[in-house]
Give the backbone structure.
Amino acid sequence: MSEKSSFALLVLTAEDQTADGAMRARQNVIHETGLFQGHLGFDRAIMVVEEGVELGSNFDGIQQIRFTSGHFAETFGEVLATIRREFGPV
């Protein structure tokens, strides 16, 4: 799929609980995030992250759009702005 894509939204939600009780995204989604970031670049592989999801420090400084649990729709404006930035007006 990465070969056919020019943009990716990678949605990281609190799906897995660690031994210490922290919530993290599924590890396959973390892997896919790196795959798309490597292929498309950081500006076109955007992380959409649910608040409370534990991320490794290697994600610090990488563009993330955050949303509160159960309110994914609150990201739509920022997602649209990101698409416009990359592709022009839609």
